[in-house]
Amino acid sequence: MTGADSGWSEKTSGADVSKLSKLAKFPVGVSLAYGNEAFSYTNSPAQQAVIKTHFSQLTAGNIMKMSYLHPAPDTYNFTQADDFLKFARDNGKTLHAHTLIWHSDYQVPAFMKNYQGDKAAWLAILKTHVQTIATHFSGKVASLDVVNEAINDGGGYRNSLFYQKTGADYIEQAVINARAVDQKADLYYNDYNIEADAAKLRTLTGMLDGFKARSVPVTGVGFQMHIYMDYPSVSTISAAFKQAVERKLKVKITELDIPVNNPFSPPYQAGDIQRELTPALALAQKKRYCEVVKAYRDTVPANLRGGVTVWGVSDPSSWLISDLFKNAHADWPLLFDGAYRQKPALRGVADGLSGKPCI
Predict the structure, then answer these.
(1) Cα(226)–Cα(228) distance, integer angstroms
(2) Distance (Å, rounded) from C-alpha 10 to C-alpha 21?
(3) Residue scoring higher pLDDT (43 or 265)
(4) Which candidate among 5, 22, 128, 157 keeps its CA 20 to 30 Å from the CA of 282?
(5) Are 314 and 337 in contact (CB under 8 A)?
(6) Residues 96-122: pLDDT tens digits?
(7) Is the confidence at residue 214, as pLDDT, over 60?
(8) Residue 109: is the preceding peptide bond cis (ω within 30°)?
(9) Peptide bond into 232 cis (omega under 30)
(10) Nearest-5° Cα angle at 174, 57 to 208
């Protein structure tokens, strides 16, 4: 907690939000760290109180990814994920599973990196992977990110290990294989920057149209929504949501955060960064959160709202600080500060969920 935090909390937070999730008929979620991870909820009663009060759905930040659940060819480890699921159930929360297949080098199991086999063999090993995990969680999770980040920025498919071995077939096969063992969970394709990158969105919609033509049972699109205060515009975001809505697919905001500093902007590149969360910045962030959530509510019909999830609980825990900004300075992308106090951003989400004016 910094001195700047106390300034904005006293001057700009306004009326407290009593229970965020009560303001929506769809899931209002949050991602969590677990166990020995930094900022784990298991070690923080204060964080647990926030989770229990404000959110109706939980996502594990890491422990349900590939290398955690399937570290060796015939080895599956569900201990941590099952404990996480128990925490959700014990507290009346649903669970969104993240993610069955992801290309990231540090999340692909070593045995897959070293696996030798033709396309058919690769599709077979991925089928076993998907179906073993989906079977374990069948009836226990509300939804799953089946494949994560398979499309390039600028369009086209990412040249991942899986694409190199199978082409794009692994994506739809993963959806088909998951549905074969879980008839009820919502199945999502999940990606970042599809709300802003027109070429990436075109690849996505082309893939979705192919799925429809071949009766691939995908339920919806997960828009990660790692966005910024000034980019992309609300109209651009809404137009992207509409692409899924027009295809009668659910829309789920899966990883929302809005940092005050945009590391890709010219001012940031020139060294002009915000080093204090002033009252004015806190209110601007509140308005931005409200506008994004309101755009979701206004654009996506009720039957296609998969939910809104923020990617982390408190500002210090954000991946943006630990991964992207390398702890070079503070940033404030989430809804609670380091002491788990409500920020104006929380009121912004509440107003967006309620359809109130964004001010």
Answers:
(1) 7
(2) 24
(3) 43
(4) 22
(5) yes
(6) 999 999 999 999 999 999 999 999 999
(7) yes
(8) no
(9) yes
(10) 85
pLDDT on residue 9: 54
Q: Is the peptide bond before 99 cis (omega within 30 degrees of 0)?
A: yes
Which helix (H) or strand (E) is 346 found in, with range? helix 344-354
Residue 186, classed as helix, strand or coil, is strand
- Region 263-269 average pLDDT: 79
Class of domain 3-354: alpha beta
DSSP per-residue letters across 136-155 = HHTTT-SEEEEEE--B-TTS
Q: Copy the structure tokens of residue 100.
A: 């069955």
Q: Give the separation between CA 150 and CA 61, rounded to whole angstroms.
A: 19
Q: Please give the biggest Cα pair distance in the chain.
A: 62
Tokens of 171: 């994506």
Q: Is the pLDDT of residue 246 over 70?
A: yes
**pTM exceeds 0.85:** yes
Separation CA 353–CA 359 (nearest Å): 14
pLDDT at 322: 62
Whether the CB-CB separation of 349 and 293 falls below 8 Å is answered with yes
Look-up: residue for tokens 């910024």? 228
Name the residues annotated as catalytic: 149, 255
SS (H, E, C) 42-70: HHCHHHHHHHHHHCCEEEECCCCCHHHHC
Q: How far apart are CA 149 and CA 197, in angstroms?
A: 13
Phi, psi of 325 (to 5 degrees): -90, -5
The two tokens of residue 136 are 């374990």
Token pair for residue 199?
């070429």
Contacts of 250 (CB under 8 A, 6+ apart): 186, 188, 219, 220, 221, 244, 304, 305, 306
Query: Which residue in 332, 356, 348 sits closest to 288, CA to CA?
Result: 348
Distance of alpha carbon 217 from alpha carbon 183, whole angstroms: 10
Sign of CA dihedral 240, 312, 352, 226: negative
Q: Please report the pLDDT score of residue 267 as a whole number.
A: 82
